[in-house]
Design a protein that fits this description.
Length: 314
């Protein structure tokens, strides 16, 4: 009787014998190579392939909180990080407590919480500011902020004063998490707010959102019910971007004619922006006192196009 190779099955033709594990693993490598190098780069409609639907950034988690005067805690999370080869790696990180870093500064500095390709969370120390830091957008803060290392992205940034205390106010303690699947922020408010005659930011507390944009194009969609209760009234609703009213691109509008009425509508527009942190809120004008309002309103921000490398930031 012939002696079959180890792992062979009696009474089965040679061509149908079980395959060696090494062969199976070789096929597995072939499949993963196909997915990474052929399939994924061709998903999507643009030249950038899968970058149209996936990008570096946070999938979930990663919120940073200040839990003592000089210490912050980063919540666990998952995301995608861009490697030096240009490919994306899925990473996860655990909840991390980051203590104080020696001050050694006079005017304060900007520290950042970053995560790298291994899921390691680090507090990246800034340099001493040339002058007192009023907020994270001023020139002193910009100069103090350290450059991001390769193959990392930031989760948060905050001002540390000359005693080592981490700031608590929103202008000095900011969420900088980029979105892995493109920016998608939604603010919903079931109540009602009056639309005045002058160009005005509406219900800032409920609708204002700071979003981290990696590309140069965003789409803002506004929904709501516009209520008009007097003759000759015309009202408009539009977004604010970084404090500037986009009132030349009305999203919703309603005009009272012969009878008071409610007008439910949805409108969206695309905008060109600079990659980075954008402040988005709701605005309106054209009404007169209590004769115009909007209720059950919402504002949604979506990111378009391929994001810039490292979210376009240093």
């Amino acid at each position: 009787m012939a002696i079959l190779p180890i792992g062979s099955v009696p009474n089965r033709p040679a061509g149908n014998q079980p395959r060696a594990i090494a062969d199976i693993l070789g096929d597995f490598d072939h499949v993963t190579n196909y997915i990474d190098n052929i399939l994924l780069p061709n998903i999507g409609t643009g030249d950038a392939g899968y970058q149209d639907v996936l990008q570096q950034g946070v999938i979930s988690g990663g919120v940073v909180t200040r839990d003592s005067s000089s210490q912050v805690t980063t919540a666990l999370g998952t995301g995608w990080v861009t490697l030096s080869s240009g490919t994306l790696r899925r990473i996860s990180w655990v909840g991390t407590v980051t203590g104080a870093i020696p001050v050694g500064v006079i005017n304060g500095r900007v520290d950042q919480i970053v995560v790298d390709l291994n899921g390691t969370v680090t507090r990246l120390q800034g340099t001493n500011a040339a002058g007192l830091i009023a907020n994270l957008d001023d020139a002193n803060a910009m100069a103090s902020r350290a450059a991001l290392p390769a193959q990392t992205f930031r989760l948060w940034e905050f001002v540390v004063d000359n005693t080592g205390v981490v700031a608590t106010v929103g202008t000095k303690f900011r969420d900088r998490r980029p979105w892995a699947k493109g920016a998608d922020s939604y603010a919903d408010q079931p109540g009602s707010v009056t639309i005045p005659a002058a160009v005005t930011a509406l219900d800032v507390a409920a609708t204002q959102r700071r979003v981290e944009i990696g590309s140069t194009r965003i789409r803002i969609t506004i929904q709501g019910v516009m209520v008009l209760t007097g003759p000759g009234v015309r009202a408009f609703v539009y977004p604010y971007i970084n404090g500037v009213a986009q009132n030349n691109t009305q999203h919703l509008q309603n005009h009272y004619s012969s009878a008071q009425g409610d007008f439910a509508a949805s409108g969206g527009r695309d905008y060109t922006v600079t990659p980075g942190s954008q402040l988005i809120s709701l605005g309106g004008s054209g009404g007169s006192g209590v004769t115009a309002s909007i209720s059950a309103y919402s504002i949604k921000v979506e990111e378009l196009l391929t994001p810039a490398s490292n979210n376009g930031l240093v």
